[in-house]
Every structure is written in structure tokens, then in C-alpha cells.
UniProtKB/TrEMBL annotation:
Main location (coarse class): membrane
Membrane topology term: Multi-pass membrane protein
Pfam families to which the protein is assigned, alphabetical: BPD_transp_2 (PF02653)
GO molecular-function terms, A-Z: branched-chain amino acid transmembrane transporter activity
Native source organism of the sequence: Futiania mangrovi
UniProt subcellular location: Cell membrane
InterPro entries the UniProt entry points to: ABC_transp_permease, LivM-like
An annotated GO cellular component: plasma membrane
Name this protein carries in UniProt: Branched-chain amino acid ABC transporter permease
Keywords: Cell membrane, Membrane, Transmembrane, Transmembrane helix
TM stretches of this protein: 21-40, 46-69, 81-99, 105-124, 181-200, 230-250, 262-290, 302-327
């Protein structure tokens, strides 16, 4: 006997929750934004504010990887290419006085998005290991260019990025202050997650999920499958480029390591540990791994072994990641209260 048959009000409560999801989503976003704005007033340590800011940049990068996994069912070992490309485009165009800082920032977001969209049109149908290797090859190609082209940005030495006095009329010092940058990065992360949640519930989001589950069936009933996948590639690259621009603004420095495959691999691990099937899972995984690395690094010089062992344990014991565990517990609690599926 179903829950609705046992409790006639349960079905009504479940329907109410499902129809009021925009309100709940807006409420959650509002609370998250309030927490972000309050954080600098609650945390006195500049070191902790700086660590949190860097962790949030990683959370944005991991969110871009999670989007590819969740909506396209694809694994990328080249996401750092768009992260680094965003930072490099902004820095080179501005420092070489090719464009104004505002135009350079716009190009840093649009350029990687366009490249990823065009790339997606080519590799969208390639599944599995072959797709992962292609993304790795593309990412390393960008890394080699940045590493060896000294006239571009000093090659492997990297390049300092002095900011102008103002950017979009805002004092540039705000982008290099831990307290204000934490609020900026956190607010952008919340807005990104809100936008992705709305997209996932839109007809386009449901179409990409249908293509992910059974691409042949989607084509059979008349849907084109390449273009939606390419759009997801573009959105994912936009998010990664945004993270790269924020990193460059905050550090005032770029280096080829921003494009290296090891960063792509770390972002993928963050997404897997957090749980890519849940919207906020990759961000949670990035947060946990960032501070695990920091604590393990303070404890021992063999910290990579500790981090690796933890990742193996989490992968074996929590195949859906920490977010999957939390979401499952919440779903079961809701069913016991007769709220139906959230």
C-alpha cells in the first residue's frame, strides 16, 4: 500500500512541495547569499578568508566538471584548459594592451565558451575512454603553447598581472582582498548553481538528460543530439573560464600550471568525491578535498598518500559521493514525514 493510500494528506503535501520548488530554490539561494555576505564579519582570520576564497574558486571549477558528467555523461581530462585559457586571455589581452580590461574580461569568458562549443560539435558523439583521451590531448596542447611560447606570457615562468585602478567602475583592490573576494566568488557560485538548477528542470535540461541516458532513442524520436551536447560543453567551459578569471584577479599572476592535465584530474576527483549526480555535489567535494589537502599537508610530507587513500575509500564506500549520501538521507527522512519525493 502506498504512502498516499495510508495517509491521504501525504500525496497533497508531496504535490505542494513539487509545485513550490521555485520558492524553495529561491529561499535556499537567498539563505546561501546571506551566509556569504555574513562570513567576512564572522571570520576574523585573514588566512581563513583567503583559504575559503581559494576553495570557492575550486568549487566553481569542479561544478563545471560535474555539469559535463551529469548532463552529458562525459568525463573530461581537459577542463583545466578552459580554466587556464580564461586567465590567460584576460591577462595577455590586458597586459599587452590589446584590449581594455573590461573587453579582456569579456573575451576571457566568451573565447573558451566558443572554443568548447565548436569542440563539442566534433567530439560530442565520441563516448568513453576515447572522449577522455581527446579532452586530455586538447588540454595538453593549450598547456604546451603557454609553456613554450615565452613571447606570449613568459613561458614556464608565468606572468604577473597588475590590475588597473578600476574594473567596470569598481575599485580593483576589492578583487585582491580576501574578505570582498570571498563574497564575490561565493555569490557567483550561488548564482551559477541556481542557474544550473533551473536549466536542469527546463525542457533543454531534460532533453540533455534523455540524450545522456539513451542517445539512440532520442534520435529515433526526432531530436538532434549533437547540438545540445555542444551547448553543455560551452556552458561548462564558461564556468571553468569564470573560475580561471577569478583566480587570476585574486592572485595577480598566471602560469602554465593553470592549464595542466593534473589540475583537470584533481577537479574530476573533486566532482566524483562530492557526487556529480547531485547539482551541488562537485562543489561539496572540492570544498572537502581542498581542506583535506591543507590539513594533510600540515601533518606530513606524505600528504598525497593520505589524500589518495581517502579518495579510494570514499569511492568504494560512497559510489554516489558525499552529496549522494546526504541527498539519500534527506529523501528517506522526507518520505517518512510523508512529504513525497523532494
Amino acid at each position: 500500500m502506498s504512502t498516499a493510500e495510508l495517509d491521504p494528506l501525504a500525496g497533497a503535501r508531496g504535490t505542494s512541495i513539487r509545485t513550490r520548488w521555485p520558492f524553495h530554490l529561491a529561499l535556499a539561494a537567498g539563505v546561501a547569499l546571506a551566509v556569504g555576505f555574513a562570513a567576512p564579519h564572522l571570520i576574523a582570520s585573514v588566512l581563513w578568508l583567503s583559504l575559503l576564497t581559494q576553495a570557492i574558486v575550486d568549487m566553481i571549477l569542479a561544478t563545471s566538471v560535474g555539469l559535463l558528467v551529469r548532463q552529458n555523461g562525459r568525463i573530461s581530462f581537459g577542463q583545466a584548459a578552459f580554466f587556464g585559457l580564461g586567465g590567460y586571455l584576460f591577462a595577455v589581452l590586458m597586459v599587452r594592451e590589446i584590449a581594455s580590461p573590461e573587453l579582456a574580461l569579456a573575451a576571457a569568458l566568451i573565447g573558451p565558451t566558443a572554443i568548447a562549443f565548436l569542440l563539442g560539435l566534433v567530439i560530442a558523439r565520441i563516448p568513453g575512454v576515447a572522449h577522455a583521451m581527446l579532452t586530455l590531448a586538447v588540454g595538453q596542447a593549450f598547456y604546451e603553447v603557454a609553456f613554450k611560447w615565452r613571447e606570449l606570457a613568459n613561458g614556464d615562468d608565468g606572468m604577473s598581472v597588475p590590475l588597473p585602478r578600476t574594473l567596470f567602475g569598481v575599485d580593483s583592490g576589492l578583487f585582491q582582498s580576501p574578505s570582498s573576494m570571498l563574497v564575490i566568488c561565493w555569490s557567483l557560485l550561488v548564482v551559477l548553481l541556481l542557474g544550473l538548477a533551473l536549466m536542469a528542470r527546463s525542457p533543454f535540461g531534460q532533453l540533455t538528460e534523455a540524450i545522456r541516458e539513451n542517445e539512440e532513442r532520442a534520435r529515433f524520436i526526432g531530436y538532434g543530439t549533437t547540438l545540445p551536447r555542444a551547448v553543455i560543453y560551452g556552458i561548462s567551459a564558461f564556468i571553468a573560464a569564470l573560475a580561471g578569471v577569478l583566480q587570476t584577479l585574486y592572485d595577480g599572476y598566471i602560469s602554465p600550471e593553470m592549464l595542466h592535465w593534473s589540475l583537470s584530474g584533481m577537479a574530476l576527483i573533486m566532482a566524483i568525491v562530492g557526487g556529480p549526480k547531485v547539482l551541488w555535489g562537485p562543489a561539496l567535494g572540492a570544498f572537502l578535498l581542498f581542506f583535506l589537502e591543507d590539513l594533510a599537508g600540515d601533518a606530513t610530507e606524505y600528504w598525497p598518500a593520505l589524500v589518495g587513500g581517502t579518495v579510494i575509500l570514499v569511492t568504494l564506500l560512497l559510489p554516489q559521493g558525499f552529496a549522494g549520501l546526504i541527498a539519500g538521507l534527506g529523501r528517506r527522512a522526507g518520505e517518512r514525514l510523508g512529504w513525497g519525493r523532494p
